[in-house]
Prior knowledge:
It is a single chain. By secondary structure, the chain is an alpha/beta fold. The protein has 3 domains: 6-66, CATH 2.40.50.140; 127-266, CATH 2.40.50.1070; 282-447, Vaccinia Virus protein VP39 (Rossmann fold). Helices cover 25% and strands 31% of the residues. The chain contains 10 helices and 24 strands. The chain has helices spanning 72-76, 87-104, 162-177, 220-228, 286-297, 314-319, 333-345, 358-367, 386-394, 407-419, and strands spanning 6-10, 13-14, 20-24, 27-32, 39-47, 51-61, 111-112, 127-135, 138-144, 151-153, 192-199, 206-212, 233-240, 252-258, 262-266, 269-273, 304-308, 325-330, 351-355, 374-377, 399-404, 422-423, 426-430, 440-447. Strands 7, 17, 18, 19, 20, 21, 22, 23 and 24 form a 9-stranded mixed beta sheet that branches. A 7-stranded mixed beta sheet has the order 10-9-8-11-12-13-14, covered by helices on one side. The protein has a 6-stranded mixed beta sheet with strand order 1-5-6-4-3-2, with no helix packed on it. Strand 12 (206-212), helix 4 and strand 13 form a beta-alpha-beta unit. The longest helix is centred in the N-terminal third of the chain and has 18 residues, at 87-104. The model has no long low-confidence stretch (mean pLDDT 95). The structure holds S-adenosylmethionine. S-adenosylmethionine (SAM) is lined by residues 278-280, 309-311, 314-315, 329-332, 335, 357-359, 378-380, 405.
Amino acid sequence: MQKNQVLELEIEDLSYEAMGVAHYEGITVFVNNALPGEIVRAKILKVKKSFAFARIEAIIKESPDRITVKLNQWVQTGLASLAHLTYDKQLDFKRKQVVNLLQKAHLDQIKVGQTVASPEETGYRNKAQVPVRRVKGQLEIGFFRKHSHDLVPLDNFFTTDPEIDRVLLAVRDILRKNQVPAYDELRHKGEVRYLEVRRSRATGEIMVILICLHKDFPQLKKVAKEISQIRDVVSVVLNHNPQKTNVILGKKDYLLAGKAQIVDKIGDVEFRISPKSFFQINSLQTPRLYQLAIDKANLTKEDVVIDAYSGIGTIGLSVAKHVKEVRGIEIIDDAVKDANNNAKLNTINNASYVTGKAEEIMPQWAKDGLKTDVIFVDPPRKGLTEDFIKAAAATEPKKIVYISCNPATQVRDLQMFMELGYSFEEIDPVDMFPQTPHVESVTVLERQK
Ligand SMILES: C[S@@+](CC[C@H](N)C(=O)[O-])C[C@H]1O[C@@H](n2cnc3c(N)ncnc32)[C@H](O)[C@@H]1O
């Protein structure tokens, strides 16, 4: 097989990154935008030892599950790389990810529920973070083409709340009008690197964050004032990122206009959200995810609960009214301050949060003899560490509720809990990210007597 060769391929499967999978002369070929059951003519873009990447030149036989996507760029950029598949089949694809992982781990007896559909299939995101670059002489916002830093200009972000799109475009036009230079990555020059916009579904409040190379530039005051006049914008913040790096956010935030936080709600609990706070991005699906976890945990008024990887306290504060006490652990100090303030804001007196690494605090608590009834974990994609898992098991909770945004690390961690005397019967996938291949999943581990 050679680069630029054109081959006829039969697509057998979808990879976990939503690429069509075919085989040719013992080599696995990943074909962008192709669906199982399709026969395509594809051009080879890159060849490695045992796999290759290809692009569709023509679809010879089309899948009945393919739908026409209004803007090809949504799929090309990875913004919505599953948008060409019907929503029902997207849900099946996510369930199958979990089934395959369990099979690989020889856990075929575990039941996998149907993926819980999102109430909204598009326009569900409460936050957008988009690059700003100069394209053909003009400041543009958009998304990078997959595996590159070429900006594809966009004015409709499809999975984002349309009210956020409205503000993104208004800010883009203000930057253009005031001739603010976009960031130039090659020369490490210019001003605005990214735009972030967050919107509360509950209150309609909008926060705009300009992520900039310098913390000041000549047009900044005027630009901030004009942005603050866009309808529903209540907070304008500058995040200063002077580094030559792919990391989006810098360390420092400066309030330019309005308030430092916006208020959102999950169920009946209010949350103040700061620029850097992690907040689940699918506003309507989040309460369903938490309710599922709460129902599965069968909480009682006597329970002492740990909320590990707690962010601004969303899970712990949502369960506080069902239990005796909640203790949270989170690594980002600002998020911990927000969590404790959010407890006060909602007059929740039985929840408190501490700053630290969950894998260090948990062993300490275990050593101090803490007895807990239920531990909720909601770690980042890399999952839990061995130290955390051992310490969690050593505190002997009756149940461990594991919410995960990466079923691969979740299944790995569940196997370790099994070795330590815990078992589980079922995993429930929940679709928090329609049109993308991301899978969220929930399971409850129970201690064996
Ligand atoms: C997937 S988020 C979940 C946040 C929260 N439970 C929610 O649903 O909004 C994971 C959180 O874990 C935090 N985190 C990452 N590594 C951590 C660690 N080693 N110890 C404690 N928290 C950590 C992150 O800062 C982030 O807030």
